[in-house]
Amino acid sequence: MIVAVSLPLVAEYGAAVTTSQIARAAGIGEGTIFRAFKDKDALLDACVAEAVGTDHVLRELASISLDEPLAARLAEAAEALHAHMERMGTVVGALHASGHRRGRGPVGGGSGGGDGEASPPRGRDEEPSPPDSRDGEAPPPDSRTQSLTALRNALTELLEPDRAAFRLSPEKVAAAFLALLFTRLQTPAPTSTADAPLTPDELIAVLLHGTLNAPGSA
After folding, report:
1. With contact defined as beta carbons under 8 Å apart, do 84 and 56 qualify?
2. Which of 42, 54, 83, 100 has minimal CB crowding within 10 Å?
3. Which residues contact 144 (CB under 8 A, 6 or more apart)?
4. Other Cβ atoms closer than 10 A to 136
5. CATH classification of 2-124+136-209, choosing from 1.10.357.10, 1.10.8.60, 3.30.1370.100, 3.40.50.300?
6. Could you report the per-residue pLDDT of 126-181, keeping only the tens digit for each?
7. What is the pLDDT of residues 105-114, one digit of tens each?
8. Model pTM greater than 0.90?
């Protein structure tokens, strides 16, 4: 619950968000946060893990009815995946821009506790935790690979009822669909309508029908 409440605040304020802001939004005492998390950095890391995790979007993909037409299934999948990637980019980007590195706190500063204050002191005999070897908020390569594989497999299940209609395997069509979605998100902000990224409907049309008016017309 604390992480869910924190995500929109992290997206807005980055690492500058305070635990008192989070506590007020959650309707809890600030001390409750520190009973659940060692310090603010641990909470921010949990927010990153939630933002990049695929459990939520996988549940949404699994809820799409296979009885729907193929284009409708893909439209729902595109919407779910786009929302997932937007949230991931917003949260991770806000933390990165504000200097937070996963497991390391703000660059140039100590580990954050509450509203800019130090974390609760450790006991003298307590050893400090080893630093996280990852520089940045993105999951490690193995985790990224597992996430992409899980998403591709979920899309493959959505495509499976129409296997006979494809020239490629559903697995390859699913991979192409993900590639088009990622490209759409990475397209710079348009300066004109000609530069605008593909809409979800255009993306699905290209995936299913290509860009020619008719096969062999070029």
Report:
1. yes
2. 83
3. 138
4. 13
5. 1.10.357.10
6. 333 333 434 445 555 577 888 899 999 999 999 999 999 999 999 999 999 999 88
7. 554 444 444 4
8. no
